[in-house]
Amino acid sequence: MADIIQLLPDHVANQIAAGEVVQRPASVVKELLENAIDAQAKTIKLIIKDAGKTLIQVIDDGKGMSVTDARLSFERHATSKIRKAEDLFDIHTKGFRGEALASIAAIAHVELKTKQELDDIGVQIKIEGSEVVSQEVIVTPKGTSVAVKNLFFNIPARRNFLKSNLVETRHIIDEFHRIALAHPSINFSLYHNGSEIFNLLESNYRQRIVNVFGGKTNEKLVPVNEDTEILKITGFVGKPEFAKKTRGEQFFFVNHRFIKSAYLNHAINSAFDGILRENTHASYFLYLEVDPKTIDINIHPTKTEIKFDDEHTLYALLRSAVKHSLGQFNIAPVLDFDHNKSMDTPYGFKDKDATNPNIEVDKDFNPFSDQKTTGNLSGSYKKEAIANWESLYVGLESKSNDLQNDFTEMQFERDEVTSKIFDEESSVKTQKTFQLHNKYIVNTIKSGMLIINQHRAHQRVLYEDFLQHITVKEAVSQQLLFPLILEFSNAEITVLQNLKEQLEQTGFVFSKLKDVVEITGVPVSVSEVNVSLVLEQLINDVENEVPNSNFSQTDLLAKSLAKSLAIKTGQRLTILEQENLVNRLFACKEASISPTNKPTFITMSVDDLDKKFM
Question: What pTM was estimated for this model as a whole?
Fold first, then answer.
C-alpha cells in the first residue's frame, strides 16, 4: 500500500497558519502595530484604505532591521525574542512566535522598507503569496514601513467572509484603541482613505483616554490605585451615572497588553453591584502589572486571553480596589435618605464660629398687672383689663337660632346629569382585548382567541413606519424647546455622520454633528430622555451589523430604531392602547412576524381549548 502522509508545501502551511493569525484586516493591524512597538518606536502612523482590504500600512521610527533580518522576518518561526522554551514564561514584548509576517505575506502583497540608524541606505522587499518578487537597496528614513495590499487576494473564499467596510473599519479602530491606550508614551496617528481619524500625542494614561473617547470623558473617570506584592493596579473606572447599555468602554491591560477576561470583568460588576441602572455596564480602563512568570499569554492565537496562576487572589484584590475608589470619591450612595439640604450650613458661614446670643430680662415685668409696665427691653407690654366678660355671650343663642332658620330655607344650584358619551358599562361588555402579565394581549375572534406578543407586535409596527418614512421622506419631527447636546467618541460620531441623511428622514434634526452631537428635533415616537439610549443602541447595531450583513443599511436602521422604541415586556397598556396596537399590527404588510423573523401572535381555537379539558 502506498504511503499517504506527506509534508505540506511551505506556502500551504503559511496559508493555514494565516487562518489562525489573520482573521480580518484588524488582525494585520494588531500584528504590525505590535511589531512597531517592539522596535521601540516613538511615533507610529497607521494608514488604511477601504477598511484595510486595499491597503494597511504601518510606518514607525523604530530601530529598523538589517538586510538579513528583513529577509528572515518573513520566515516561519523566525523571532528575535525567544531563544529557549523557558523564555515563553518571561515575555515582555508583543510578538514573539514569529508567525505574523510569514502568515500575512502568504495571503497578501507585502512591501517592506527598513533602515537602521547607523546605515546609510535601507532595503526594500516585495513579497506576493510567500514568494519574494524583488529585493533592492533604497533610500529611506530610519525605521520600518510595512504595506499590506490586497488582503486575501489568493483566498477569495476568505475575502467573501469579510463584513462591510463600516464594520471592518470599526474592528480596526478597536485594535487601534487597545494598543494606543496601553502605550500613552508613544505618538499614534490613524488615516482612513486620506482622512485623519486620530492624532494622539505623547501623554499620560488619563489624557490618552480623554483624547481617544472625547473631552467629556475626563469628568466621568474615578482613579483606581492599589499596589501589592502580587498585583499593581492603576487606571480608572467610570462613574455609575455614565454607565452605558453597551460594553464598548471596558479595557483590561496586563503588562501593557490588552486582554479579555470574563472572570475579572465579574469582579468589576460585583464592585458596582447595587449602584448601576438596570441593563447598563460600567466603563473601566484598568492597567494590571504582574510578574510575567505568573501568567501564560500563549494559550490563544490572538494573545487576548491570559491564564493566571492565582485568579482568586486577583479577583479579590481587583474587586476591593474598585470598591475602595468608589467609596473614597463618594460615588457609592449614602444611606441618609431623609437628608435635607436646606439644613446644611451655608458656604459663607462654614468655617465661622457661632456667636453667643445676648439676652436681657426685665425683672420688674408682671403680666398680671393692670398698669402698663416698661423695662429695659425694647417695646412694651400692656394688659387691658377685661371687665364683664360674660357680656360677650349675650345674644349668641338667638343668633344661632336665626342661622338654623336661614339654612332650612337655603337652596342649592346643581347641574343636570346627562348621559356620558361613552357608557362605562357598555364598554366593559364590548371589551375584546385583555392584557396578560403585562406581556401578551389576548383578543377574541370567531374561532377562538388570538394571543399577541406586545413587544414584537410593536416592533413590526414601528419597523414598517420607519421604512416608509425613510423611503417616502415624509417623516414628522417634533422640535425641542432647547437643543439636546450629546457626547460620543470620534468613531461613534463617524457612524452617525454616515447615517445622518437616513436619520433625518426618520425625523431627527441635527444642528451639529462634528465634535459634539446637537439635536434640535426628534421623531414623534421618540421621547427626549430616550434619544441618547436610542442612538447608542443604533451605533452598536450598525457597528456589529445586527442581525447580519445581508440587509441594507436602511433596513438595519429601521430594525434598530424599532427595537429600541418598541413597547417593552412588563409595560401596562390601557384598553384603548391595546386595541390600537392590535389594529395597527393587522394593518402591516407582514403582521405575523417581527422584524427579526419571530412570530408576533398565535391563535388558539375553541377546539384546542376543548381538547385541554378532555
Answer: 0.69
